[in-house]
Every structure is written in structure tokens, then in C-alpha cells.
């Protein structure tokens, strides 16, 4: 069964509106465009929209949408024996959510790109071991929470794994770089939203080939930030996700790939973090760098309690948190950054399964509230 996820493009929002009367919401805001009768939901840091980001003014869902705390979903990954995993795990500070059983992914998958996009959880690409060879995927799947099953949707234009997936301020997904049939690529893809038919199309070309890099959505979804990765390990690129304009910013301090990255809001504004990863000699590292938003350069941050690579970063209860990955073997501990004390410590829970290269995304804690059971 194929389900198409539909996105609608919007122009820059007006401060005051004539055609829309947006409701007020806690932990966020709703802004509307009077020319197109559309509204966008923007949640505060450490919160996520419970549904879509973009609504028409007369959509009943606009009055029901909330900004809620996120939990994190881990999809697939690679075991210590290099097997592709097909299990899916919920990560939350709430035990009842961590214990919820999620349907297995349709097949074992390593390094897929996962999004919470327009009220839908979607996983695309990744690689599947076939003996000593690797098969690269371009299929995309969406998760139906009330049916607890995965359904296939529109595929990427080309097979791709170990890339970066981000979502812009309109809820539109984009993927950058990665591996394509054993070749590092400099291509990107985004959803076409300019015609009634929805499909992936070619996006902006990267300045260099990238894999094992880390990316995040910055400036409220206005920019995509890509850091490190093979083959340069240090370079950093930004893309304006409205105009597709490209820019370079200062290089990282340490060479790294297969690292984790994220952001938090401090006294100086939005800070970006890169943590751990592998160096150019394939050794796991524990160094951390934090982007100073006023001086516009990377500074040394507090080192990790242990070296960690091939995992990912998320936000749990407001704390930047590193999940999965390995020091030498896959780890089940979860490390969090205490920004006020400028140090890392561990959460009091562990993952059920150690895994490297999982797909990871933040999703709303209320995902299952719409279901009857």
C-alpha cells in the first residue's frame, strides 16, 4: 500500500494577518500568511509540534496542534557482529514510553535517514548487507502509530545511506550527501511541492562529496548546517533552505566523521554542538566543540565521559543527549550535556539494544494519544 505524504509550499510570513486568526499555544507560536491563508507552527527549544507544521487557516487541526515534549525513535543500525538490525526502540525519560513495542522495520537496515515531517514519521534509504556486499536502498517508509505498522511511500531518486536528513521550517524533508552504491556523493534531494504530483527532486549540489557527516536544522529551520565527514573531516557548509544559497563557515577544530551533532539555547543564543566520532585514523574520539553564536567560531567544549562514534544526538527533557554508537563495542548508555554545569553525565536508563549507525529522529510524546488503545 502506498501513501503519499503531501506538503504545501509557502512564502515568507507576514507579521500581521487579515485572513487568519491564529490561536495561541503554549511553548510555541503560530504565525500566518494573509496572502496564502496558511499558518506555520514554531515550537520553543526542546519542544516539537504534535502534528503538522503548516496548516491552512480553515484547517480544524490548527486549533488542536500543540507544542509538546519529544521522545526519540531509533531505527535499525548495525550490531557488534555487523548484522543489520530491524528492531525499533523508543527512548524517553518516561518508562512507559520506553517500554512501548514498535513494529519491526520491514528489513534490517543500517544508516537510514529518519524524519518527523509534517506530522508523519518517515525513514528513507540506508544499506542492507548481502553477504560480504552491501545493497543500498532508496525506499521510503512511513510509520502508522495506531496500526503499528510500516507502509511504503515515495522513494528517493537514488539509493543513499550515511547521509544527512533535515526538515525545514515548513516541515519539508531534505537529504544531503551520503553513500550511493559505494561512491561518496555530493548530491541532495528535496520534496517537490510545486505541482500536484509529489516526489523527490534534485536539490543543491554540495561543494564536496560527503559521507559520515552530521547535519542539523538551524535558525528555526531556515538553514541546514553540515559538519565534518569524509573526506575532509573538518569542513562545514550551510544551506539556506528557502533559496538553496550555499555558504562556508569556519572549519571544525578536530577532524571527525560519524560524529553526533545538535543544538541548545544558551544566554548567547543558539549554540551548535559536535561531539565524538572517528578521527582520520578510524579511532573513536571524545572531543566536543561548541559554536559561539556571537563570535562565530568553534570553541572546545567539555569532553565526553568516554569516546563515542556512530551514534546520534537528540534532546531529552531539554538536555542534548547522545544515544547509541560505540567506544569499541556498541554502547547502551545515554550521555547528556548539563549546560549549566558545563559537563556530561549519564541518564539513569539504558538502551535495550546496542547499535551503531541507527536512524534517529525526535517525535512527539503524544504520538499515540490519537489512538484508541
TrEMBL record:
Keywords: Kelch repeat, Signal
Family annotation (InterPro entries): Gal_Oxase/kelch_b-propeller (IPR011043), Kelch-typ_b-propeller (IPR015915), Kelch_1 (IPR006652)
Name the record gives this protein: Uncharacterized protein
Residues of the signal peptide: 1-19
Top-level division of the source organism's lineage: Eukaryota
